[in-house]
Amino acid sequence: MPASSLSPVPTPHARDRLLDAATALFASHGYQAIGLRDLASHLGLRAGSLYHHIESKQGLLFELIESSLTDLLYETRQCLKGARATSERLPCFVQAFVTYSQANPDKLVLLMREAMNLNEDQLLQVDQLKAEYIALLSDIVAAECGLTTPRARSIAHAVMGLLCGQAQWGKVMTAREQLVTFVQGIVGTGKTAVPQ
């Protein structure tokens, strides 16, 4: 068979390039502002060729958000395995979040800002992953403070507000050690606060 009649073999990194470009463009310009033509143009492709790699723009966004949350969960669990004592689990959790957010700032933007563009089924799946992540932190808070699950969950949400707020500024503005101290302060306040 002549070489000219062979179909081009897709490069193994083409999909990775697509995912990286979509993450960067959605994070910097917003999901609504970027069309598939923009994405294809950025990659030097025709818009129609993207459908060899994705089902739809919204499906692409869901894949990016879901994989980001899955990676964050995995990396956090791996970090927590290294904790030798209960008191080390909270700093490990914060360390995992900071490391992930510094290595993947665009992915974090998608997690915090673009999930609203997903459909109900996709949002439900994303919310389940977020619930798993909050449950990890809630369990740490409950074990460290001896709190009930609902109270520990409230504190976990406050901690996540602090961590995500720091990350929203583009980079963690506070040294990791200080951030761990702030988080421990929030958790410690939950330990001493009078239940309502």
UniProtKB/TrEMBL annotation:
Residues 35-54 bind DNA. Keywords: DNA-binding. Pfam families: TetR_C_24, TetR_N. This is TetR/AcrR family transcriptional regulator. The keyword DNA-binding applies. Gene3D superfamilies: Homeodomain-like, Tetracycline Repressor, domain 2. PROSITE patterns: HTH_TETR_2. It comes from the Bacteria. InterPro entries: Homeodomain-like_sf, HTH-type_TetR-like_transc_reg, HTH_TetR, KstR2_TetR_C. Signal peptide: none annotated. It comes from Pseudomonas putida. Residues 12-72 form the HTH tetR-type domain. GO terms for molecular function: DNA-binding transcription factor activity; transcription cis-regulatory region binding. SUPFAM superfamilies: Homeodomain-like.
